[in-house]
Amino acid sequence: MTTTGPTDRAAHPDAPHGRNPIPSGGHAPTPEAAPYEELRAELAHLTTEQFRPELAEIDRLTTEEIARTMNGEDATVPTAVARELPRIAAAIDAAAARMARGGRLVYVGAGTAGRLGILDASECPPTFNTAPDEVIGLIAGGPSAIITAVEGAEDDTEQAAADLDALGLTPDDVVVGISASGRTPYAVGAVRHARAVRGALTIGLSCNAASPLAAEAEHGIEVVVGPELITGSTRLKAGTAQKLVLNMLSTITMIRLGKTYGNLMVDVRASNEKLRARSRHIVALATGADDTEIEAALAATGGEVKNAILVLLGHVDAPESARLLQAHGGHLREALGEAAKG
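Below the sequence we write its predicted structure tokens.
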């Protein structure tokens, strides 16, 4: 994958196709522009911000050629994620241990990263029957920023701390800062505050190596996907990488917390017709029971899939299924083991 070298464009990344933006008269930037020169120099060193000269005329390709190019770029993301699997697994084990003590999983990010955190958090209640406040997504600028960008919100480290404090953060909680660049002040500030002030477990998810975010977190995950198809558009490969890692963080943590039985979604919340049908299918797969037995078990347990499976496989009544599951922290396999002992 080709990236730019130490050219005029690297020093001035806003210049189109390598042209030096300083006028021919050689005038230096005005004092007002100086702060941006420093930030531009910082961004120029980020892999996710690099210019791809071989794609400079992508707009002249056919639509199918662009689609094939983009698909080829996306195909490299799982390999980049695979390089971080040991660190991802360590972060998940640590997170599951905190959540087993009653802690919460809190995603924090700005822009695309914040929206991805909110997306993952919102999927946990219907999928794993988590409480609404058990997996939480915070985005810089508040809920309105989910739809409309809030200018300057990502630079507000004090608001990041305030947003976490509003949750009553505890040492049992897990805070995941998400930032493609790894330098977003809102995400970095949140992780710093959660770790230093609140004693929470912290995870930093970035798409650049040696990022400030990973340095602040106890568990740094840096999925380096390389420069984007569209320069600096980190909703592309970087966003895909973040989504894949967040899938792992929430899903495997829930597996560790007993929210599945094998690969069956036994804590599903049957809140609509599709999920009610799925609940019956899951009970059938787990038990081999016929429809009459399944309906009776679900009716006796108030529609709770995990309890119904325990009733059918453990040959216990509904109250006993509830007691066994509570005694084993919701782990169906362990509850079945005790039921089998008689």
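The CA atoms of residues 301 and 318 lie 5 Å apart.
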